[in-house]
């Protein structure tokens, strides 16, 4: 399990999308990597989740987890936002997400946060 950097460490927000059936697996993976944990250990597994509808159109060389090549697909997905204290935690969380997610190409973004 990853260790948490100090409160002075750079903060990052990891945002990712996952199909609802894979949501808990993806969250467990990023939490095990140290995401969603505040320094001092008072709060862990912290995230914000909202449900929505995603769409994609797999091309000829795609190997989609759901849907079919050449056909527009709509599916219920969850958007998850989680804080990462330290660049190493953010990188480890992304690596864990890439291993846990069922999609051929994971949809995620990492944003560096400013402390005002």
Automatic annotation (TrEMBL):
Domain of life: Eukaryota
InterPro entries: DUF34/NIF3_sf (IPR036069), N-reg_PII/ATP_PRibTrfase_C (IPR015867)
SUPFAM superfamilies (UniProt xref): NIF3 (NGG1p interacting factor 3)-like
Signal peptide (UniProt feature, chain positions): 1-17
Keywords: Signal
Gene3D superfamilies attached to this UniProt entry: 3.30.70.120
Keyword Cell division belongs to the record: no
Keyword hit for Signal: yes
UniProt-recorded name of the protein: ATP phosphoribosyltransferase
UniProt organism field: Mollisia scopiformis
Source organism phylogeny: Eukaryota, Fungi, Dikarya, Ascomycota, Pezizomycotina
């Amino acid at each position: 399990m990853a260790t948490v950097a100090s409160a002075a460490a750079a903060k990052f927000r990891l945002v990712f999308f996952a199909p609802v059936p894979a949501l808990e697996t993806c969250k467990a993976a990023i939490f095990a990597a140290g995401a969603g944990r505040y320094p001092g250990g008072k709060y862990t597994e912290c995230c914000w989740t909202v449900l929505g509808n995603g769409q994609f159109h797999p091309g000829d060389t795609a190997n989609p987890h759901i849907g079919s090549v050449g056909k527009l697909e709509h599916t219920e997905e969850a958007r998850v936002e989680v804080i990462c204290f330290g660049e190493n935690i953010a990188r480890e969380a992304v690596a864990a997400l890439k291993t846990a997610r069922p999609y051929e190409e994971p949809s995620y973004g990492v944003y560096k946060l400013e402390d005002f």
